[in-house]
Design a protein that fits this description.
- The structure holds three protein chains of three kinds.
- Chain A is α+β, with helices and mostly antiparallel strands.
- Chain A is 46% helix and 13% strand.
- The longest helix of chain A is centred in the first third of the chain and has 13 residues, at 7-19.
- The longest helix of chain B is centred in the last third of the chain and has 18 residues, at 347-364.
- Helices cover 44% and strands 13% of the residues of chain B.
- Chain B contains 17 helices and nine strands.
- Chain B is globular, with a radius of gyration of 22 Å.
- In chain B, helix 5 crosses helix 7 (128-144), helix 13 runs antiparallel to helix 14 (347-364) and helix 13 (327-341) runs antiparallel to helix 16 (391-405).
- In chain C, 26% of the residues lie in helices and 16% in strands.
- Chain C has 15 helices and 22 strands.
- Chain C has helices at 19-25, 77-92, 108-117, 152-160, 191-196, 267-270, 298-316, 331-344, 375-380, 390-399, 412-416, 418-426, 483-494, 503-513, 522-525; strands at residues 3-6, 9-12, 49-52, 59-60, 71-73, 134-135, 140-142, 167-169, 176-178, 202-204, 217-222, 231-236, 249-254, 286-289, 292-295, 321-325, 404-408, 429-434, 446-449, 458-461, 466-470, 530-531.
- Chain C starts with a strand and ends in an 8-residue tail after the last strand.
- The chains are: A alpha+beta, B alpha/beta, C alpha+beta.
- Chains in contact: A-B, A-C, B-C.
- At the A-B interface, helix 2, helix 4 and helix 5 of A face strand 4, strand 6 and helix 13 of B.
Amino acid sequence: MTVAFSEKTKEKFKAILAKYPEKGAALLPTMWLAQKEFSVITPEVEEYVAKLLGVPLVRVHEVLTFYTMYAAKPLGKYHLQLCTNISCTLLGAEDILEHLKDKLQIGAGETTPDKKFTLSTVECLGYCGTAPVLQVNDDFHENLTTKKVDELLTKLK
Amino acid sequence: MPKPILSKNFGKKNAHSLGVYIQDGGYEAMKKALTEMKPEQIIQEVDKSGLKGRGGAGFPVGKKWSFIPKEAPKPKYLVINADEGEPGTYKDRPIMECDPHAVVEGAIITCFAVGIHWAGIYVRGEYVKSIERLEGAINEAYAKGYLGKNILGMGFDLDMVVHRGAGAYICGEETGLLESFEGKKGQPRMKPPFPAIVGLFQGPTVINNVESIAAIPHIVKNGGEWFNGLGAPGIGGGVKLFPVSGHVKKPGIYELPMGTPLREIIYKHAGGIRGDKKLKAVIPGGASAPVLKPEEIDVPMEYANLAKIGSMMGSGAVIVMDEDTDLVKTLRVLMCFYAHESCGKCTPCREGTGWMAKIIKRIEKGEGESADLDTIVSIANGIRGRTLCPLGDAAVGPALSFVTKFRQEFEDYIKVGAG
Amino acid sequence: MPTLTIDDQQVTVDQGTTILDAAKKLGISIPHFCYHPRLTKVDACRMCLVEVKDAPKLVTSCSNAVRDNMVVFTGTPKVEEARKSILEFILINHPLDCPICDKAGECKLQDYYFRHSRQPSRFKDYKVKKHKVVDLGATMVLDSERCVVCSRCVRFCKEVAGEENLGIFNRGDHSEIGTYPGKKIEHNYQGNLADICPVGALTAKDFRFKCRSWLLCKVDTICPGCSNGCNAVVHFTLRSFDGIKGQRVFRLTPRENNDVNKIWLCDVGRWGYSFIDSIDRLTTPALKKGEDFVKSDWDTVLRETASGLKTVVERYGPSAIGVIPSPHLTNEDLYALKCLFSCVLKVTNIDFKLPGLDKGEGDKLLLKADRHPNTRGAELLGLSGTGLSAEAMMEKVKTGEIKALYLVGSDPVKYIGEKAEEALSRAELLIFQGTNFNASCKLAHVILPGATFVEKEGTFTNYQGRLQRINKALEPLGEAQADWEIFTRLGKRLGSYPSYKYAEEVFKDMAREVAPFTGLSYQKIGPQGIKLTLPEGKS
């Protein structure tokens, strides 16, 4: 299977390339584009990105495995990322985690069988003043309680 | 309390738009800098301001700029570090979300002062809104002619780019950030050469934190001495954002004079401990700063004073722990964090952080032995000062301070388990 | 030039020299994993930390340049403590499988642990599991658990071999070396990965589980794989092991020579040694009886050869003899050959240049298209162009004008094909002198077994005109003899010929007689070789 950006994404890619003094520097933003377009950075996507930028394939794979936010495996429709770092843990993030596991019947790093939710624990998200915090795709839910989690999950159905 | 400067737009509606920013006197400093000042004068003012790098290392900003060679075979670059990832730290995000033009204006002035024509801001991948707001501000600035060619007709060109990270704490480290900017893994580089000589794309590079850059317009507008005077008497260095989290009644970001006593931050500004419980421990400068005991909190929040008592200012993030806090669990959280974020390049950090995490996890599970505590201390000493970048030392900070300052609690935990 | 003090000894070095290199100059070796003199620096392993007076912390000696008046200590308790600690860190996730590790005995981790640590493990937790027995390419196997993540291999592929095909994936203590999943390393320099890997993470398939490294003897040699003349070391043993009986040579490793091969060896050369102990080695003199070869003895075959050649010369003159030597032979072999054929027998039809001899596939780094180590030497000795070309000789053999053909390690059938086969089968006397059986040898009437490059002394002249020595590591297999020795024995039977006992004696005569070698001796050539002053138009 070969993959390719849509025309619209190709335009975006061109705009990104124009911003950087060196082509290879566009690797991270190009992988973001790819993730948005293809959801998952599959080996085909890696090869496509490497070719687009003229960077060695092995470097694309290094980047994919080094950073935590690129998805090498498919994620659920909602990616629940719970911060379990210090400020959130001090304010009960672990209880929230247990509650989420219980509710979704999956462990951290797993996806529900209906592919709706993926649950992850993540490092500090920079919302320490309103801990605990849960990132759902690009939205942040602050000052979490188990009750708020229940309300949220109902809304996400 | 003095009028806020850095946080004046926090929570203010539409403050991120160019119109509101200009109405409030925005871009006046840029005009002053470009039309009335010479680059050296700007650097002098920043020098006088006593502004020290707000990212954590606390290096004087003016001095950092002065290291950049005037003539260089390669183009020079400004990189703004917005990879805010130090646990407990959440001060740069509201600047970018609510006051993105302050960052753009600060960047323009900085680049003009140092002779740079390309500025990049590296924002951690999770800060989606910050990225949107910055990109919006940059587009507005281009449209207005504040970015691009021949800014204000002064013959000065500047391009500005937002670069999104992808989840790696190590990219907050200057050279790790540069690698990441160049499309590689964020593994720190060997130093020397320092970024001021060989940085982004091999060119001389200034790397400043968001808060530092956002302070620049104010310094240029009102003078370096004015900013310096905002710091506590005898300490100076201006004002700083102190993000407070943990067991306090009013967690939040407090803009206070450099040198404000930690006690005042916790008890006066953040309202004291939740449920009026007793204070057990406090981390004064983000997760990497060695923990302080209640009897140590009269320390002025300032670089030298905190260093004197064996801790550090770091990002100024205050993390407060009340008397019920399980320190074994807390240290486990921190040790797992560093093990997870170690880039793996140098031996002591790669292996040592993982080892400490495993030991503390085992202790938490109730399978610890008294000798494990000595092993943690010895591992920490084996990492300290021997790593390629500061991440190793960052892990050592909490490891050593928790285990030595609260040794009894750890011993008790090993003997009888959690409280 | 800065002068500094290292461990109470003063040393003056060039500006920019690192502490590690300055110490090396004083004979002080500082342990290190990631540093390699031929690769960029990464400052990663932290094994080379030393104490510098007035420095707040220990500093990495591999990356920090010396300063004038610097005072360095490489063995203080603080430094030793740091080494111990770094070694402990490396070992916590190491599988400690030295007994079955091919690197054992020449492993830096093992050596440093013995030298600087020797402490029992304090590690009580579970080790990180990583990939083992990973097939990295045609010749390499990776054991990630043994890896110390020094990144030498990654840098080598990118910086030397010119292929960015190895990377380090994941991070922290899960960092792992690898190729992109499913891809293999394809370059011709893989063997160097096993050399530069400081531990047993990268091992050569060719060497795996064959021999303990400490049982191997080492002798300096020159790789005979092409005309580049890469400096090498041959690793061999005379013991016999289960399953590998008969194998004496186990590997070829590079030897540093900045002017020739830096410190690398290509795979074609490195793994070309197997002919030395292979099943097709010619180990006894033999004579063709009917369709078969029959084992003979030196006296008989030398007598047969001498009388055969003599008869041809007497009956038809020296032009009825053709000689085709191989540029695989040493200068000494070729000079002895020349003395015999050109001086004693007055033969002019001597040509080593079989068509297509230099048509292999070379690369930009070391490997040359000409896969012979001494083409230049053969040229300088005038072993071509004095009479008929090798190809023309085939024609004359066919027409019967050439009666006797003497092949020395050469294989006309391989290079010329059917035409040569036909010609050789028509020769009245075909003598094959060489190390291994080949298509031309098959047609010979007399077989004289020769010694391989590890079984004799001698010199090769590389493509640049650099004269380099090979050394005798092993006795020739079976009854084989060095080619110069065979010619000496033949020469005695055919006329007046010097009684050479050593290759060096041949060289001495050659140095007297042949211009580019004038005034040279084995001693002058030394271990790194010497650039010859070449006649004009030949450089």
